[in-house]
Amino acid sequence: MSAAPIFANNELDAGVVEQICGYLTEDPPRSYFLFAGAGSGKTRTLVEVLRRMTGVVQHEKGGQLARRLRMYGRSIRVVTYTKNAVAVINGRLGDNDLVGVSTIHAFCWELISGFNDDIRAALVAVKQAQLEKETAEARAKPRGITPAKQRDLDEIKADIEALKLTDVFIYHPDRETHGAGALAHKHVLDATAWLLRHRSTLQTILKDRHPIILIDESQDTMKGMLDALMSFVEPKGNGLTLGLLGDHRQRIYTDGHSDLPSLVPASWATPELQMNHRSQRRIVTLINRIWEAELEGRTQPANGVEQHPRTEKAGGVVRLFVGDTSRSPEEKLAGERWCADQMRQASGSDAWSQGQYQLLALEHKLVATRGSFLDAYSAMVLIDPNSAAPTGSGENKGPTAVQMLLNELAQLEACVGTDGVIDEFKATEVFRCFGRLENMPEHYVERAKRFEEMLQAISAFAAASANPGATVGQVLTPVLGANLFEVDHRLSEAFADKSPAPPAPARGEEESKKDRIRRGWCALFATPWSQLQKYRTYLAGNSLLATHQVVKGSEFLHVMVVMDDKLAGGNQISYDKIFGGVQLSKSDWENVGKGKETTIDRTLRLLYVTCSRAQESLALVLWSSDPEAALNRITESDWFSGDELFVIR
Ligand SMILES: Nc1ncnc2c1ncn2[C@@H]1O[C@H](COP(=O)(O)OP(=O)(O)OP(=O)(O)O)[C@@H](O)[C@H]1O
C-alpha cells in the first residue's frame, strides 16, 4: 500500500523553496521576509534555495544567477546568529565559493576592518549621540542630573576622548579582544551600522561584493544593522536584495525590532512555512494557542501563520504543574522530581525517571540558584551586567576584567591533582601558552629565584583552590602576589583597594556605576572559589540547566520548563502574570495605554520558545505566588484540558 495518502499533508510547504528562488531571480530581484515558525525547517529551506541559486542543484534561472555571480567575483552572503549555525549551514552546503556564511559580527568586521579613521568617526558619533540622549533624559527627571549620573556622563566623555586618541582598532569576532584599540562586539555592529548609513563608498562596496544577503534569526538581529540594510534595498533594483528569515514569536533578545513583520515594505514578498516538523500534535496545538491568546496586557499582534504538525506525529504529552513559590529551594527541587515522575507515568518514557530530560530554566538567576553559583553570578552582574550571562550568539565569555580568573586560573587549577600534587609538566605548558615564560630573567641565579617564587605561589594556589571553604580572594592572593599571569588593571586595582563595599542602593535610589562595580568586586572576592567553575560551565553553555544560548535552534525529546518569577531577576519576565497568579502592575497598564511592549508580551514569547523545543513530551512547572488564582485562570483558558493540570502538594 502506498504511504502517500498518510503523508499528503506533510507537503504543505513543498513550494516555498521554488517561490523564494523565483523572487531572487526575478528582474529586478525581489526582497522577501520568510515567516518560518518553530520547527519549520528553515535551515533546510535556506540550504535548498542556496543550492539552486549557485548551480549545485539544476535550476535554469539559478544557474544564470550563479554564472553572473562568478563572472563578477561576487557571492551570496548568509548571516546567522551563532558560529554553530555557520557550521551547520556550511556542513550541509559543502564547498561552495558562491556563498559566504558568517555571524553578523564577522560580516561587519570584514566590511570595516582597517578603515581606522572611519571606525573612529563612527564610534565618536555613536557615543556623542548617547551622551546627548542620556543628558537630555536626566535633565527631564524631577531631580535633574544627580552626582551619580554626572559621573556616568563624565565617563562617556572620557570614552570619547580616548577614542579620538586611538590610531588602530583591533577586533576578533570569535573572542574578546584586549589591549589598546580593542573593540567590543557591540561596538563593531554600532560602527558598521553608522558607516553604512553615512559612507556611500561602504554601501557600494557591500553591494558590489554581496548583491544578495540572507539573514537568519532576523527577529533578533541588531536593529541598527537591519535598518541600514533595509534602507538600501529600496527602490527595487538598487543592487541589493535582502532575504530575512525569522520568527517574530521567538524574539528573545532586545537587540531586534519589536515587530519586524509590520516593518517589512509592501513591495517585499512574504512567503510562509506552515509546517512544524519537530513536535507532536499536542505540543503544536499548545504553541498555536499560546501565540493566539488574547491576554490582558498583551500589545503585540498575534500575526503569523498557525502551524500544522506532521500527520504521523499525532500524539504527544503536555502537563502543567502548579506549586507555591514560597516553598524552599529544596522543596521546589523535590516538587520538580515529583513532576518528572508524573511525566514518566503519563508518557511511559523512562527518560523522565533517568534524568534524561532537558530542564529549561531560562532566567539566569534561576539557573544560578539551581546550579549553586548565585554569588559568583550576582558579583559578575554588578561588575558588568552586559556580559555576565551567556548570550545567544555564544560569544559571551564573562566580564573582560575577570578573564584571568576564568581562563588562566581555570587551566592552572586543572594541573592540580585530587591529591593536591601539581603536574609540573602541564603547569609549564599553561605558563608557556599564556606567554609567561618569555620574559624570564636571563641570569641563571635570578632565573632560579623566579622559578622558586613561581613554584611557591603555585603551591599556595593549589592549596587554596583545593580548600572547599576558600574564597576567590584567598585563591587570588598568591597569584597576584607572585605576578603569575598578566592581569587586567581593573582586577589588580580592585584587589589592592581594601576599602569596604559601598552599601547597596535603597529601592528607587540611583547608584553610580563606580559604586556598583566596587560592590561587585567586593562580592566576587568573598565568593566561594568553587562557584567559579560552575559559573564557567554555565557561560560555556554546557550546563545541564539550559540558558537562552542552548535553547536557540535546539530541540529535545522531553522538556521541563521551570517558571519561577521569584528567581527571575528583574521585572522583564513574569510567568505568574500570564497564568493569573499576579495582577498586572500600574506600569504594565501604562505600557498597554502607550501601546508599548509589556511583561506579558516578553513572557509569552519566552514561553513560546521554550515549549516549542519539545518533540515528544512537555512539562510546565509554575511556581506561583497565588496557586489557586492561577489554577482558576488556567482552567478558564483553553490551553490545557482538566486532566493535564496538577497541583504540586
Ligand atoms: N521537510 C522536512 N521533513 C521532515 N523533517 C524535517 C523537515 N524540515 C525539518 N525537519 C526536521 O524538523 C526539525 C526542526 O527543523 P529545524 O530545527 O531546521 O527547524 P527551525 O525552523 O530551525 O526551528 P526553530 O526556529 O524552532 O529552531 C528537525 O528535526 C529537522 O530535521
TrEMBL record:
Keyword list, A-Z: ATP-binding, Helicase, Hydrolase, Nucleotide-binding
Gene3D superfamilies: P-loop containing nucleotide triphosphate hydrolases (3.40.50.300)
A UniProt-annotated Pfam family: AAA_19
Gene Ontology molecular functions: 3'-5' DNA helicase activity; ATP binding; DNA binding; hydrolase activity
InterPro entries: DNA_helicase_UvrD/REP, P-loop_NTPase, UvrD-like_ATP-bd
GO biological process terms, semicolon-separated: recombinational repair
Sites where the protein binds ATP: 36-43
Domain UvrD-like helicase ATP-binding, first and last residues per copy: 15-292
Protein name: DNA 3'-5' helicase II
Organism from which the protein derives: Comamonas koreensis
